[in-house]
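Moderator note: this is an archived Q&A kept for reference. The question asked for a predicted structure of one protein chain; the sequence and the answer are reproduced below.
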Amino acid sequence: MTLAFIFQRYQDMVVVESVDSRLSVFQHWIQDKITNEFDVLLSEVSPLAAMPEVIESMRQRDKDHLVRYILPYTERLRATTGRESLYFHFHLPPAVSFLRTWDVDAAGADLTDIRPIVVKANKYRSPFRGIEVGPGGAAMRAIIPLNDGSGEHIGTVEAATSLENLLETTALPPYFGAMLLLDKRFESVLGQNRIRGVHGKWIVGRGFSLPQENRVLEALDNAGVPERLGNAFYRFLPLEDFEGRAIGGILLGYDSMALFKSTVSESLVFGLIFLLGAMVLWFHIYWNVARVKLFLTHLERVLGNTVSGDFTGRLDTTPVHCLDILHCTKTDCPVYHDPMRICYLETGSEALSAVSRNTCIFLSRYKHCRLCPVYARRRGDELVEMRHTVNTLVRLWGGFMGRVDQVVSGVLQTSEASQGPSSLGQVSASLEYMAGLTAFSHDIQGVYNRWEVYNILGDACQRSLGLGQFAILEFAADGLATNVAANCFAATDALCSEMFASPELCRAKRLGKPVFSEPTPALCPFFHVDPTTHVRCCLPMVMGGAVGGVMTFVTEAAAFASKRLALSIVQKYLTECAPVLTSLNLLEITREQSLRDPLTGLHNRRFLDSYVHHYEEISRRTEKRVGFLMVDVDYFKQVNDKYGHLAGDAVLKELSGLVRQTVRAADLAVRFGGEEFLILLHEVRPNFTAVVAEKIRQTVEAHAFPLPNGTTIHKTVSVGFAEYPTDAASFYKAIKFADVALYKAKEGGRNKVLCFEQSMWRDQEY
């Protein structure tokens, strides 16, 4: 009963730790959902800012034309994404409502006092995103400024969705819940239909399966945000607006009743089993007092344990030493210095029979063991002799198996040796695994790329290790994506597709340790197995100090115990693969780094030469128009002279980031040399190159460049551009003409954009 009570207390502690871990995972999951929603909103509103129809309608203040275009677009977007609360809002500077997709008739309202995010976006002409509380509740917003072709700011466009709708449409895991809490200061801002009630300092919004919701409201009135109410645990996820001010939070909850019920049942079962075992043990001792039966029982136990590899069991003995019986004073006797040479009767578990080993120095004197005084002490007591013999055999056999196991474990680098000697079957299996591992290590030498390694590894897992359902997931070097290197799963959901875009969801990757669904099926929400029939195993592959991949496989629950050694072998296979994959990745990284500028991260001229060679042929066949912009920082030498070269490097790095943000993802940005950059625009429309060039110039002119000393400076750029094949018949000639236009712009006063004209270049050679 005492042990059952201690076990129950221990189980309670385990439940609390497990719940805390689950709430942490749930909190990170909700945070990731909110972050992803912001990214989605920004990706949905960004195309609107570049659509000519939207820009022209805003510039002309043509609301009707904008309505005819934007409403079908919004409905299509809602239908394809399933997000019914998505809406767009167009504003005129500084914060005047121009068009609302949810109420197209309402317009002209001045939102200066209630929509600070709109005011800031129009004032600074920069994108913003964040949570803002309004009459419709807490909304997630992403807003982008609108500029016409000449660079004039004409307003902003905003995409927004309800935070409550995000929680409502999110499929929460079982036993988890959430409730939106806003600061009481928003009571006058929110619409009455958005206020469920005011409790304490919080405005309570909608709850989504929050456990013991009524008790939570009482706690908010009295003691504030609760951490635990009975079997329900809570965690508060704070929320901030786009300016970093606290506006409330999401109260996350988990109902641990099922876990507590499980621990109570386990405690009762443990207590009953222990009590029953104690009763059986005492009954057995009481009725089996005869020495023969007790000996046979112990012998059965000892020999039975050796079958399973446990050689620690011994029969009770009382060793007798010949030096004590014979009162020997011969210090030169080898037995005096080495008791291992005397018979088993004298040392108990330290030696076998002296007759069989020919180690007793008294055999020449007594002729036979029966004549020995030491043996006479045990004459007729066959059970004692049997005890000594069995103990010696078990010790020697255990030592031999232990040494064999150490050799095998040393080769396989497993931890099996620390658990005691293995059985013969385990040693045999280990030797077979060693042979397969040796062949595998040989096979992966000299591979060309990492996909060959994964193919060989997958084949070995199927043939040598008997794994039927498994997959190998590879994490990208930046840690932001997951690739499927091998897949033998029949079910589509077994691949853990949730972590393809968020690898950090993988528990094995975060911990760098193996993760199993047994004995805790809820340890990871992505196991996707029935815990009553199967066990999911996830083994990390550590490459260069970080987890570069994970092997995940499913085995039957009944066979999981027998797969323990196989798990160590699989981990060894992964360990063998790790240095080979690391070397291949380093080769790829080295090649990539040789084609990039180390300061700015942009491609260098070496990459440009290779790129132009291939892309020029494609453009010639497809007759696509390509724009070339040559950008140069005005008076860059003054930065180095006045602030130092570190400041100059900081300006170049910041400028490269601005260039990447301004051009499209498919366009190519190259550091051409020094403070000069080349941008290659794919498939440009008429006048598009000029618009992009002017946009780069305006962006740089308006940007404050931070320096290492904490100050900021403003710089300008001069831009020259030319187009292929309009201005030049080849790419290199177009690059040269863009450079000529650049220097004409610098000669004309800098901070300007010039298009190449034939009058700028009269020479035939370039």
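Archived answer notes: DSSP finds 24 helices and 23 strands in the chain.
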